[in-house]
Amino acid sequence: MSRQARESHDLLLGEWACLGLLYKKPSHGFAIAARLKPGSDIGRIWSLTRPLTYRALEQLQIHGYVEESGEEVGLAGGNRTLLTMTKPGRAIFRTWVNTPVVHLRDMRSELLLKLVLADECGIDISDMLKAQRKNIKTLQRNIESSLVGTDKPDTVHQWRREIAEATLRFIDSIK
After folding, report:
1. Considering the chain, what percentage of its residues have pLDDT values greater than 90?
2. How far apart are the C-alpha atoms of 175 and 171, rounded to whole Å?
3. Mean pLDDT across the stretch 32-41?
4. Can you give the CATH number for the domain in which 94 is found?
5. Judgement on whether residues 95 and 150 belong to the same structural domain of the protein
6. Which residue of 5, 71, 127, 135 could cross-link 79, Cys pair, CB 3.0 to 4.6 Å?
7. What's the pLDDT at 7?
């Protein structure tokens, strides 16, 4: 899908991560990239290279979710442009973080990112977790009903069944 063809609410996971890192206070791309590099606090969940971080921030500006708000002196010379989340950016981020993840395949990346960012931003997502649990139970029922009449579940069904059960245990452990 081309960058122009995406809807403004159809952000990529890296863009959501950048938006969440701007929720509490303005920052600059270099600092956000540092938090998204592999092994960092957010990067261990979802990482982006520095160029992809700057591209994500550019997309957020294009959509009107962040805006330039000043400059800060850089450590190695030159100024760094500070970015601030806009009101529409805050609103769409709160909506995203409070929306349950749809697919089991996205639990490790998207759900975990939502949990960590919501905690950092001070956003209560207890209602989302209840809805997430309900959605997973529905997915479990769908998996089980698709197996009716089969002798042995295939590898994909077994994987989906285990991910659903593990995610439910995890959600129950963090409530």
Report:
1. 74
2. 6
3. 95
4. 1.10.10.10
5. no
6. 71
7. 55
Across 34-38, 75-79, 125-129, least confident range: 75-79
CA distances (Å), origin 116, targets 11, 21, 133:
18, 11, 17
Does a structural domain hold residue 4?
no
Q: Are residues 37 and 75 in the same domain?
A: yes
Helix H, strand E, coil C: the string for 112-165 is HHHHHHHHHHCCCCHHHHHHHHHHHHHHHHHHHHHCCCCCCCCHHHHHHHHHHH
Q: State the total domains in the chain.
A: 2
Q: What is the pLDDT of residues 9-25, one digit of tens each?
A: 689 999 999 999 999 99
SS3 state at 49: coil
Note down the domain range covering 132: 126-174
Residues 33 and 87 in one domain: yes
The CA distance from 159 to 172, in Å, is: 20
Any domain includes 114: no
pTM of the model: 0.87
Which of the two residues, 78 and 56, has the higher pLDDT score?
56
> Are 95 and 26 contained in the same domain?
yes
